[in-house]
């Protein structure tokens, strides 16, 4: 058995994928690892990059864009690692990140999954690296902007844990799909990604299942990765901008994931009036984002 299986979903991010793989290879001595790339029908030669430049990598060639959940799930029967790292193709691994996150899991058996500090090209923390479950209050505080008005409030700033220092190791509800390190036995136990989600929401749902099974989830910022955010979600391609049709598809999928998660995990926990208000808010948001996409 390997110590670590790194699973990377690829979709039209050729140059970013190349840089991601190079960054892993640069630090491959930090763990006994294997790399699996699941390519979602890229049209930019991403699969050729893997074949020609990284022959050691296991390549899964999907014939079409299956979405984030289904694309990553294609690797579940191939992984041989004690740990599984779900890693975006628009990321770059830094020194000691693999070694230290593995060490931390080795030393803390109660933890089912963790993430490291995810840093944007600007040097700022990618706020989505650590999140709370989007309960009605948490979601309202976030989408109304109250978490930005009261960034130090434990009540209103829970969505991104803004009230906690970004360099503090702490328990969280949700870690971002860009870097999710999970024990294989845990992800096999709870089931991999729910394929009801095409894009977004699947990481929240997986974390829900992990916590429900009794495991902790941790944000561990002692080490970091670079995240060139947006590319792996189709906001840009290596061969140019996405079409308006693609942009609308991704926006719709992102907002639809909110409704899927709420109905699946939270609907039974709140009165009908609150549930209907949440669904109305989600569908209003979807309409607004759809209009914005058409006008942009």
List the helices and strands and how they pair.
Layout: E1 2-10, H1 14-26, E2 33-40, H2 46-53, E3 58-62, H3 68-73, E4 81-88, E5 91-93, H4 97-107, E6 111-119, E7 130-131, H5 136-143, H6 146-149, E8 170-171, E9 174-175, E10 179-183, H7 184-190, H8 202-212, E11 216-227, H9 244-266, H10 272-295
Parallel strand pairs: 1-2, 1-4, 2-3, 6-11
Antiparallel strand pairs: 4-10, 5-11, 6-10, 7-9, 8-11
Characterize this entry briefly:
The chain has 296 residues and is an alpha/beta fold. It is built from 10 helices and 11 strands. It has 3 domains: 1-131 and 172-232, Spore Coat Polysaccharide Biosynthesis Protein SpsA, Chain A (Alpha-Beta Complex); 133-162, no CATH class; 243-296.
Could you report the average pLDDT, rounded to the nearest whole number? Answer: 94
By CATH, the architecture of the largest domain is named: Alpha-Beta Complex
Under CATH, the topology of the largest domain is which?
Spore Coat Polysaccharide Biosynthesis Protein SpsA, Chain A
Shape: globular
Assembly type of the shown chains?
Answer: single chain
How many helices? The count is 10
What is the strand tally?
11
Series of H and E elements? EHEHEHEEHEEHHEEEHHEHH
Number of domains in the coordinates?
A: 3
Largest sheet: 9 strands, mixed
What is the CATH C level class of the largest domain, in words?
Alpha Beta
- Compute the CA-based radius of gyration: 19 Å
Unreliably modeled segments: none
Helix and strand content put the structural class at alpha/beta
Termini separation comes to 49 Å
* Strand-residue proportion: 15-25%
CATH superfamily of the largest domain: Spore Coat Polysaccharide Biosynthesis Protein SpsA, Chain A
């Amino acid at each position: 058995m390997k110590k670590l299986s790194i699973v990377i979903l690829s979709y039209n991010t050729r140059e970013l994928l190349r840089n991601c793989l190079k960054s892993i290879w640069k630090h491959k001595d930090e763990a006994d690892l294997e790399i699996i790339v699941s390519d979602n029908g890229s049209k930019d030669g991403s699969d050729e990059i893997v074949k020609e430049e990284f022959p050691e990598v296991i390549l899964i060639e999907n014939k079409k864009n299956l979405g984030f959940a289904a694309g990553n799930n294609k690797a579940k029967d191939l992984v041989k690692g004690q740990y599984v790292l779900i890693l975006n193709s628009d990321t770059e691994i830094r020194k000691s990140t693999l070694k230290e996150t593995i060490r931390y899991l080795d030393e803390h058996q109660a933890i089912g999954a963790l993430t490291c500090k995810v840093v944007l090209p600007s040097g700022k923390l990618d706020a989505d690296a650590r999140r709370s479950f989007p309960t009605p209050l948490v979601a309202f505080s976030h989408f109304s902007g109250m978490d930005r008005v009261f960034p130090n409030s434990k009540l209103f700033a829970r969505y991104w844990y803004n009230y906690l220092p970004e360099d503090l190791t702490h328990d969280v509800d949700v870690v971002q799909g860009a870097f999710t390190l999970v024990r294989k036995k845990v992800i096999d136990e709870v089931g991999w990604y729910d394929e009801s989600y095409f894009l977004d929401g699947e990481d929240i749902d997986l974390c829900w299942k992990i916590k429900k099974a009794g495991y902790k989830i941790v944000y561990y910022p002692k080490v970091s990765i670079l995240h060139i955010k947006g590319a792996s979600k189709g906001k840009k391609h290596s061969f140019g901008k996405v079409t308006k049709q693609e942009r609308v598809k991704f926006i719709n999928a992102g907002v639809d994931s909110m409704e899927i998660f709420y109905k699946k995990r939270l609907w039974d926990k709140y009165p009908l009036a609150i549930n209907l208000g949440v669904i109305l808010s989600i569908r209003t948001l979807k309409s607004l984002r759809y209009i914005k996409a058409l006008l942009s």
